[in-house]
Predict the 3D structure of the following.
Amino acid sequence: MDDVDRILLTALQQDATQAYAALGKAVGLSAGAAHERVRKLREQGVIRRTTVDVDPAAVGRGVMAFVLVEAGSWMGDPPTKAALEALPEVVEAHIIAGPASLLVKVRTPTTEELQASLRRLYAIEGVTGTQTIVVLESFFERSVDATGATADGSPERPSPPATSR
């Protein structure tokens, strides 16, 4: 992946509906060349999917919580994944290291529905407890920066080695 691919990814993250002609113009390529680059990024799995960013509150999922799921045994097996995927209110699930086995992000319409969701999580085989953190307000949610920049804006890539004279 080169800088042209990174610029294309950044442009697509801002607006995935852009025409290939506009994408090509942004990087100095023809529409066909831009299309081919994007196709290859999809083929390589760099672009996993094209989606729409929906406001959860606008569709009745305004309550967000992060749930630490404690377990008596390893939870990284297919049955656990399937059980979590079967719960539509679970929007993310991660195997983690630390005091819990899983970190789950849940979105529900009400706190009552959140409580019902916690009951369903607790019913998953192997779960021994949960700790829930309810989000009061989100400052922002950010996509991965395709340019590789660090928090201070500098490139993440290492500098080339110095040459001796």
